[in-house]
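Quick illustration, no need to memorize.
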Amino acid sequence: MVSRADAVPAPLLVLGGVLSVQFGGALAATLVPEVGASTSVLLRLVFAAAIMLVLARPRLLGHSPAAWRTVLLFGVALGGMNWAFYASLAYLPIGVAVTFEFVGPLLLAAAGSRRVRDLGAVAVAAVGVVLVSEVTHLPLSELSWRGIGLALLAGAFWAAYIVCSSRTGAVFDRLDGLSLAMVVAMVVVLPAGALGWHTVTAEHLLKGLGLALLSSVLPYSLELLALRRMSATVFGILLSLEPAVAALAGLVVLGQVLSGPQLVGMSLVVVASVLVLGRPRERSEGEAPAHLTETGA
C-alpha cells in the first residue's frame, strides 16, 4: 500500500525541507533583533528537543561511555552551529549568511580529495565568496567582519555536525542520537539564552515553536522519507540550492535585496556545491542526513 508521502516524488520532499529550513531562518531573523541570538536559539531548541523526545522516545540505558561522548560532541556542534548562524543574522542578509556558512560542508566534502574537479570547485567557491562579501567594491571598514566571521564559524560547526552525525548514527538507533543531542545543545546555550528570557513574550514563544517545526522537525522528517527513495548524490545536489533558497526567503519575508555581484557569487557557490556534494559517495548505515537541517539556518 502506497502512503501519501510515498506518492510525493522524493526530490520534492527534499526541496520542501530546504524551503522549510530557509524560511525558518527568515523567521529567526525577525526574532533575533528582539530577544538576541542566544535566546532565539534556546527557544528553538526547547521546543525542538521536546518534540523530538516525544516522537523518538530515546533509550537512555545501555550506551557505552564512548557513545555518550559522541552524542555530547554532536550536541555541542549543534548548539554552536545554531548560535553562530543566528548571531550572524544580526549583521548579514540571510542569503549572504548561508553562503558563507555553506563553505563549511563544502570544504569538508572536498577535504583530502585529489580530484581536479573538487579542487576546481573550491576555487570557484572562493571567487563566489569574495563576490558575496562585497570586498571588491566596498571599503574594508564597511564590511561586516563580525557577521562574516560568525557565518564562517557556523559553517565550521556545520562541518563538525556532519561528522558527528555520522558517528552518532552508527552508535544510536533511529532518531535517538539526534534527540539526545538536541537536549545537549539546549543545555549548551541555556546559560546565555536564559539571560534574555525576561524579554520573551507569548509572540516570541510562538515564533520559537515555528522555528522548531520549520527548521528542525519538518525538514528532518522530509529528508528521512526522501532518502529511502533517492541516492545520496541527488540529495547532495538538491541541498546545494540552500544559498539560493535562503536569498529567496530573505527577499520574500524580510525584503532583503542582494546586489548583482552578490547574486553571481552565490551562483558560483551553488555550482561549486553541486560539483562537490553531487559526486557519488557512500553513506554509512544508520548515518543521519548530512543536513542539516539541522542546518545552521
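DSSP finds twelve helices and no strands in the chain.
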